[in-house]
Amino acid sequence: MTATETPAGTPRxxxxxxxxGRYTRTHLPGRxxxxxxxxxxxxxxxxxxxxxxxxxxxxAAAAGxxxxxxxxxxxxxxxxxxxxxxxxxxxxxxxxVILISFDDDxxxxxxxxxxxVIHSGAIVLLLALAVVVSFALAEGxxxxxxxxxxxxxxxxxxxxxxxxxxxxxxxxxxxxxxITLALAISIPxxxxxxxxxxxxxxxxxxxxxxxxxxxxALPSILCGLFILATYVLMFGLPQSGFxxxxxxxxxxxxxxxxxADVVLRLVPQTLKEASFAMGASHxxxxxxxxxxxxxxxxATAIVLGTARGIGETSPIMLVAxxxxxxxxxxxxxxxxxxxxxxxxxxxxxxxxxxxxxFGAAAVLMVxxxxxxxxxxxxxxxGAGQLSSRGAARARRASARxxxxxxxxxxxxxxxxxxxxxxxxxxxAINGGPHPQRPTDTPTDxxxxx
Length: 449
What we know:
The protein folds into three domains: about 50-130, no CATH class; about 170-380, Orthogonal Bundle (MetI-like fold); about 400-445, no CATH class. Helix content is about 65%, strand content about 0%. The protein has 18 helices and no strands. Helix 7 (about 220-235) packs across helix 8 and helix 8 runs antiparallel to helix 11 (about 295-310). The longest helix is centred in the first third of the chain and has 39 residues, at about 105-145. It is found in: Cell membrane; Membrane.
């Protein structure tokens, strides 16, 4: 009876190990020697940028543009830049897949195509941001490049006056007053509310979280109307920068609460348990563990709220009014902001007023960038990530704490010099007690090390 026949004489399909050129799961050679160990697998490189990848992208882009150009001139009755770009991108992806399929497998093709699509989206967003910023800077350059634009208001500048007269300092000061007052109110309330939602769950906190999530999409005009109906009409208080700050507070408070709540709930539970094990109370754990750990995330929440409130126009238009004069008192009198000044000035038919409006927009962008940079500096890095100065402070604090425990702790913290440690080791080798160890601890000589 052969190896490929059943006892009854019926032929059967050879087993995997019996087929020439096939391997078993254990890759062990058979008795007949036909099964050999498989060749080593080739490592698939899915990350990094190689020269062939660049050539594929360039070739696929050139082929896609050429194909689209031929279709637009010879076949399709379509014109315009946007259809040309979209059709070219579709052809680019198709040609890119074809070029990759010559050398790589299916997994690599999917990875490369996904990477190209993601990078394309990032490039589109960067281009859109660059176009917006460059357009505002180019239109407002004739105004904000002059010194008087940063030092004067519009009290002496009329619509027909040149750009050498007047500036936007009153609008910049008004914006700073409004956003500062709004943040002074919303940051404590927002962080405390987020702490309540994250650390003290209850049916009441679930209702608060639901209301907060719903208020994140509240239209800004409703915030202005609410302050107008209550602060101005009901209580009879004047239109002012403080009223605008209250409207901005209603807008940014839900954003800060929701973002801070998510950040606080990401603090590892083990850190809290370690604090409780050391005997700290719940509030001490929140103050010394939870809030410092989530400081970077809380700064991000404040940045998001600031970005929402600093560029609003409709609440300020309703409750703060418009003025061309400098107003240093945010509690009385009209006060204008940079967004509202931009909205008002660009509606003028005079080129100088339009230039001043775009200059105000440029000033707003500079101010936002400065505030965000300041928030990042205050927020610092994430938990466990220390800067060079922070690491140096941690080492000095560790040395001070170790010095409190005497020579043993001082040596553990590196408080002794290299010469002192070397002399102590030599003394211990010669049979004497080690001055940096407890007297009941065996020395290296006693243990045979």
